[in-house]
Predict the structure.
Amino acid sequence: MTCPTAPNIVFVMTDQHRPDFMAGEGFGLDTMPFLDSLAAGGVRFRRAYTTAPACVPARTSLLTGRWPSTHRVRQNSTPQGVVRGDDLLDVLGGAGYQRFYAGKTHMYRGRKEFFEAFSGPYGHEGGPDETPEQQEFAAWLRSVDHGPTTEPTPFPVELQFAHRIVSDAIGQIDARDPDRPFFSWVSMPEPHNPYQAPEPYFSMFGEDEVPARACGPEAAERKGGAYKWLRELVEEKRPGYDRLWRRYRATYCGMLRLIDDQLRRLVDHLKAQDVWRDTLLIFLADHGDYAGDYGLQRKGAGMPEVLARIPMVVHGCGVEPRDNRRDFVSLADILPTLCEVIGRPIPLGVQGRSLWQMLSGADYPAAEFADIVTERGYGGLPYPDDARPELHFPYEGTRYDELNTVTQSGFSRMLRHDRYKLYQHVDGTGELYDVVADPMELDDRWNRPNMRRVQTDLQQRLHRWSLRLTDDLPDGVYDPKLPPHNWHRS
């Protein structure tokens, strides 16, 4: 499918979405058949990673093409501390795009003046709730205390945020100027907690059908550190919570199907409006979810594959279909990719790499995409697993935030290459895993004699990334030599 010089661009973004919970990734239940069909006709990146398994740092990376250590937003509470050059909205606005937003923001660009049309912000317990029914639904969501629920949601699908957000996006697209290209960002808060779904989605995947989890609470104890601390905190607040792990996973699967049906509704409308053939659609998430693995819910501790790897599917004009199982790509690669799609220069300070050559079927260097880095932590030293510092929520009661002073303490970088995964922590410690043989990262091979050569190679790769992630901003009188496509290796 050929692509105009300024195609329409649609982002569909989910929150806390594991890619391995789809049949197209080998999951035992068919949760997202429509997304899988788009992947079959486009490019599915099976080695796509977030820059950080936390909402605001990851979304800031998507906008800026920069890693958290560089854009400086390393926790959810500091979006306005961003350090950046031109971002995605600057580039698209400069190219004449109409910019539409519908859904969850959770980023520094959340205000209406940045978009020609804006609907939101939607959160996880409320949105622009104007009608009595919407207000009643929001009150019910707050009562759920972030779930998982044990009964179907007593409100219709039309009140679910995914449905409302797609309706808002459709309205924005219908009201567009047909003589200008548009960028539509459709940002769904789901399948993030609270874990709830109305019928038919609540019962669509039975608890007895859900594939067994890879490991339970014993794995958090074995991992220690923030895993153990978080597991003990939630058990203290919600004794016996892990008994609901099958219900939790079944509801999570139902939420994915609900999202999939709304994605189908959006695409069907684009086809009906005769704009689909000139549209580039990118489906991605900010990070993953434990979904009961390690006996944990949500996110918080570490950067295991279930949190760090994300779904990423690109479909539409100019894309040569391919199932990409080899290349390691990042959320930060989206901005430079779109710069090349629309013929704009990649802004100074962007650290991601253009993927357009691999998407369009052109040649590209495999070495450039042989590894990838994810970051975690807001600084300082990591707290021990028996720490009880003051938190931004009380130790009493059932409510908690899994991203907090303890779980996000310190700073770590993770590198993925080939079948291996290496961690380096600010306190001088490290970890090394073979994620093919040990996908849940329970057998640490750090400093083992038979792994010395592998460990040295991975450390050298991580060191090269650390140099690469040194900031080129602010701009000055010097004229930097910028690599084509932002590729540093050939």
